[in-house]
Amino acid sequence: PAAVPTIDDVVSVRRRHIARSQRNYYRNPMNLVRGRGVWFHDEDGLAYLDSLNNVTHVGHAEPRVTAAATRQLRKLNTNSRFVYPQIASYVRKLVATLPDPLEVVFLVCTGSEANDLALRIARQVTGRQHIVNIDGAYHGNTGVVTGISPNRYKGPGGAGAPATTHEVVIPDRYRSTYGYDDADAGAKYARDAAAVIERITADGRPPAAFIAESLMGSGGNIVFPDGYLDGVFTAARRAGALCISDEVQVGVGRLGPWWGFELQGVVPDIVTMGKPLGNGHPLAAVVTTREIADAFDTGMKYFNTFGGNPVSCAIGEAVLDIVEQDGLRENAVSVGGYFAQSLRELQQRQPLIGDVRAEGLYLGVELVRNRTTRMPATEQAFMVTELMKERGVIVFPNGVHDNVLKIKPPMTFRREHVDLYVDALDEVLSLPELRSAVQS
Ligand code: PMP
Questions:
Q1: Which residue in 28, 188, 279, 401 has the fewest CB atoms around it within 10 Å?
Q2: From ligand 1's centre to the CA of 110, what distance in Å?
Q3: Is domain 7-58+327-435 classified as CATH 1.10.10.10?
Q4: What are the transmembrane regions (predicted)?
């Protein structure tokens, strides 16, 4: 067999043949050759604890997923216009995780594609073009969804919001208008969002949809205050818009319930899902109501070559079975709770930690140089990333200021892994180069 490319080969091929806009993690990346459970292994045999793969939901190289995939690959794979049993078993199980009346499924390959299709459905069904989104959000990489992703259109190289995109304020209780001390923050952020919806409706630009994650991922791990989505959904529906929940990052039990919107007590009109569905295999979905799906069917065909092929369905079914059989939703709540508590204890003695946000196994650690001014510790967050890697822990910042360590590990994470993470972070934050960044 040909020699496996070394890290130097890979870096040089990437430099030459992979477009530079496709950034990789780390200044000096490792050559990852294997994954098992919550661990990565590099070419030198070093192990790294994976705290951020919400894609490998049930663990790296999970044997039951591998078995389902290889069994089906040996039997049959084909495009999705043929009829085969796997789609029935999978879709039946997927729909069973969702509340009524969400029952009609489009299987696609990526979260971006799911959101692109969700917008297309909303626009066609309502006959409107305008979309209301939340500032800071990321919804994917197609042309259309880049246009509803402030995380991109407001970032480097971005051209600003398209004329059909209307942002509402990010309901970030650490940095925005209403704080953790405001018991009505949810209603107040919703009221401000409703004002945007009412304004554009009144001036002749009524929205086709309001789109939001149920907990904002790339926007900085923003846990919504109670009542927020309920308030905005009510205002959006009053204006005749559909409500889309983007569950691409947080779905499939990571927050405890199968779907994050359940925590906000709402039922969306359209749900999009992706990343964890296939445990790393490209599988994503749009789920909506019979009424909306029928209204979308004007006679024009919708065809997706790979979406929901037999292998994808076999993998998707294995993932749902494992989450259920292994009690991973319950694990997310208990280990996530322990993680949040451990990080809050660390926050007591590490002044760089400004805020800890958590829901199940989705957590964010916001680093600031000054707790009073909340000056983002962006450069320090990248230093932490490199220093944690030296200690065998994979972390990475996100958020509007790139200063929030995102934590969304495989759902098989245990307390001992939390302890490894927290001890390494404690050690790193105690180093002089980080301590000296704290402004007194
Ligand atoms: N929605 C959200 C909330 C996401 O975080 C992402 C990916 N980071 C996407 C959509 C796009 O998914 P994909 O990369 O699979 O196209």
A1: 28
A2: 7
A3: no
A4: none
